[in-house]
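Our consortium's second objective concerns turning raw sequence data into structural hypotheses that experimental partners can test. To show how far this objective has progressed, the report includes one record in full. It was chosen at random from the queue rather than selected for favorable results. The single chain below, 425 residues long, was entered without modification.
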Amino acid sequence: MQGLIPRIRFRFLRSLGRLNGVRRVRGTWLFLGPAFVAAVAYVDPGNFATNIQAGSEEGYRLVWVVVAANIAAMVIQLQSAKLGLVTGRNLPEHIRERAPRRLVFLAWLGAEVVAMATDLAELLGAGLGLKLLTGIPLFPATIIAGAGTVVVLALQRWGMPLFEAIIAALIGVIAVSYAAETFLGKPDLLATGRSFLPPSLGGQEAVLLATGILGATVMPHVIYLHSALMQKRGVRNDPQKLRRMLRAQRTDVVIALALAGIVNVLMVMMAAATFHAHGLTGVSGIEQAHKTLVPILGGASSAIFAVSLLAAGLSASAVGTFAGQVIMSGFLSRTFPLWFRRAVTMIPALVIAGIGVNATRALVLSQVVLSFGIPGALIPLAWLTGKMDVMGSFRNRAAVSAPLWGLTILIVALNVFLLVQVLGL
């Protein structure tokens, strides 16, 4: 009997440990989702155009640039999520509270232009994917894609977890599609690894491509959005619980952005294996890439490509519209119904589709517009997350703040360089 009691006590304590472990895992899973919404911006149709051009022209050389850009994205989205979780306010709200009214208005105007440019690119990408998949002309395909994003946005009525799950599922479709494309293309894995040993750029064109990958990686609208997605999730009266929540959202960011990074790497590898390896170094347009895949990998590959583009456009367009709502609400304390924003922001995309402007060219130009909005999001984020009166004991220490400011300055400088090159200034 004396030996039985310690054994029972041991089993009871062990069962409590298992229960606590289950609770910790369950608590972590409750925080998985917001980063997947933000990660959509890193696998949007603009990434398709950039990565295809990089792979077709430079082969595997710039794979390391894609990985570096993805690590930078992790750092930045982590800070945005942290700001919202710790303070209970999103980035636009913080700017509105601390900046002069005129500056707030200009910041809102710039953020709105960025959100609309993003939405234009994503909606055109979705319409282009539907056109490639079905043969429907671009104009009606864009209208259908716009209706599809309204359906995705409507899922929020049943709660954010469902919306986040659908977005994560669409990212999964993109990932599986590109994994299939890469498998069909049989890329050179050794050449992919050699891009890191040591990393290099090569000629001037490669430098410009690398700058485009790095400079266009950070999407300002999802920096605003990620902080908003986290602001109602924190338990701020319990620092210990809040730290556990921060660890959980780090897991969310790492998983989501790692998946987005893998998709981008696969895009470059596919383009290198199918285009560069066959001497097709001039493939830079999405429609051109779709047509060129057929004689190289067969008809199934082009269909898979179109499906991934459609999934990317639908998910990114829905997220872009949602981000626009957060931007207006945060900066101006005003909102419009999401369906109204969807209808208004569809107009530029429909005009471009209707007059026959090259869709890929429009995607590239939208990325240039996005570059103008990056300082407005990154600089306040780096500043606010290092302030004691904003973050309290959770403020960034010098070991985090200094690299964050360095990364901010680097990305802003790269975008300025990209703008100069593209605009010929």
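The partners drew two points from this record. The chain has 18 helices and no strands. Residues 4-30 have pLDDT under 50 and may be disordered. Both points have been shared with the crystallography group to help prioritize constructs.
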